[in-house]
Amino acid sequence: xxxxxxxxxxxxxxxxxxxxxxxxxxxxxxxxxxxxxxxxxxxxxxxxxxxxxxxxxxxxxxxxxxxxxxxxxxxxxxxxxxxxxxxxxxxxxxxxxxxxxxxxxxxxxxxxxxxxxxxxxxxxxxxxxxxxxxxxxxxxxxxxxxxxxxxxxxxxxxxxxxxxxxxxxxxxxxxxxxxxxxxxxxxxxxxxxxxxxxxxxxxxxxxxxxxxxxxxxxxxxxxxxxxxxxxxxxxxxxxxxxxxxxxxxxxxxxxxxxxxxxxxxxxxxxxxxxxxxxxxxxxxxxxxx
Length: 289
Description:
single chain, about 290 residues, alpha+beta, 4-stranded mixed sheet
């Protein structure tokens, strides 16, 4: 059987376990901070680890390139993870972007493998490595259910759309004293530029939003639009950063004010009642505010 582009597209459209969107999931405080600055901040994704009575953190993104993590898991399947594990229950807020747009920006699926594979990868590509050890006994390490993609900052693209490397920001996250900080060379834009028919990025930011905002409850949906209007009036954090990237800020906040918002409460209901598993199914079903 000949497999062409149309065949692949038909298969992926029919498969409820595959989504055409990639989602960055996080907790509520960080979600609010990300919405305000309009960018994802790349990191080494350090996680807490206890070993021989010692507490500390270790990076889960290796190599010399910090990155932003996304999941290809459809929203209906992600809710199964939320029900199964507190790790996901604390991360019920997200931003979903089209896979085609993120791929054009430079995002790629992670490479699952053992530590020997990691050593064979060059430092340039090691940021894509995710530790995988699938054994019948001992400590199994398996994150394949997250179907992870990663994107590192594409500095030339950021520069072209106004996220300059010398434009810095620092934003307080919640009430814990943590900060979200960086510059144009440390971020992946939430409002991605347009791409042409060949899939190459242009220098133009779209007027309409290409991202979908995901919140935990129905009550929180309206607050997204209200916050966008408030920030358009100059109320909020990171004014210095915004003044240096005013063109990106203006177009991002306009897009945010028009963005489609879906709650996980509604996603759960529509999945159980109508068999809608993917965020694009909810969009086409007209269920978004």
